[in-house]
Specification:
This protein is 23% helix and 17% strand. The protein has helices spanning 62-65, 68-76, 117-129, 163-172, 174-181, 203-207; strands at 18-22, 40-44, 56-59, 80-83, 93-95, 97-99, 110-112, 134-138, 184-187. The strands form 2 sheets. The chain has a 7-stranded parallel sheet with strand order 5-4-3-2-1-8-9. A two-stranded parallel sheet has the order 6-7.
Length: 213
């Protein structure tokens, strides 16, 4: 009888460091991502097409994996590829156990995800940096603009009304978890709708050593 391989255990590769998570929000278009070269970077889903030199790629949706352009991006990606879905066959992709909200998973082989990959990517970052580390969100807008839904090419499946309300419901539960894990977290997404979720900060302040709530 065949067995699934064990879930991947996330190592603490970057103890006490700062890691940047690049989501899909349109606000990314207003930021100079080239300034992040040499930093610790996690990209979510199709942000890999914009920042192919990131350290980690997280995707949590098998629909994303099934897109040919995304498969090519994964094949060419030099960093680590992580998911919580078993619906893939590429040995390059590391699979963590999916947990449900509320809160981040403490177990290092697990990532919390329900309605948004941002929770799982944040969980991954928290495992990587450990206590006194810091996480900076980019493209965590919590809204769409009249012009576009993402900073990258739109997904083929449509954006569902009310989706960001579901995202926020999950994200609210991770704030106490971050505090308990000793990880600071900030949102550097200009114009974000999630103004009361994490402390807001400018990307240039982080990069120039002015990290503060």
């Amino acid at each position: 009888m065949s067995r699934d391989p064990p879930f991947w255990t996330v190592p603490q590769l970057w103890p006490g460091e700062v890691v940047y998570i690049i989501g899909g929000g349109p606000s990314v278009l207003s930021q100079d991502l080239e300034r992040l070269r040499g930093q610790r970077v996690i990209v979510i889903n199709s942000s890999v097409h914009v920042v192919p030199w990131a350290d980690f790629l997280f995707f949590g949706d098998w629909r994303w994996w099934n897109e040919p352009d995304n498969r090519i991006a994964v094949a060419n990606f030099k960093g680590h590829v992580v998911t919580t879905t078993k619906m893939r066959t590429d040995p390059k992709v590391k699979v963590c156990k999916k947990t449900r909200p509320p809160g981040l998973a403490i177990e290092r082989d697990s990532l919390m995800q329900l309605w948004t990959s941002l929770t799982a990517a944040t969980n991954l970052a928290a495992h990587l940096v450990g206590r006194v580390g810091a996480i900076i969100w980019l493209g965590a807008d919590g809204k769409i603009t009249p012009e576009r839904t993402h900073h990258h090419k739109p997904h083929r499946w449509p954006h569902k009304p009310g989706a960001y309300d579901k995202h926020l419901k999950d994200l609210i539960t991770i704030v106490p978890s971050l505090w308990q894990m000793g990880v600071a977290a900030f949102n550097a997404s200009p114009g974000t709708a999630w103004v009361n979720l994490l402390p807001l900060i400018k990307l240039e302040d982080v990069l120039e050593g002015r990290l503060a709530a």
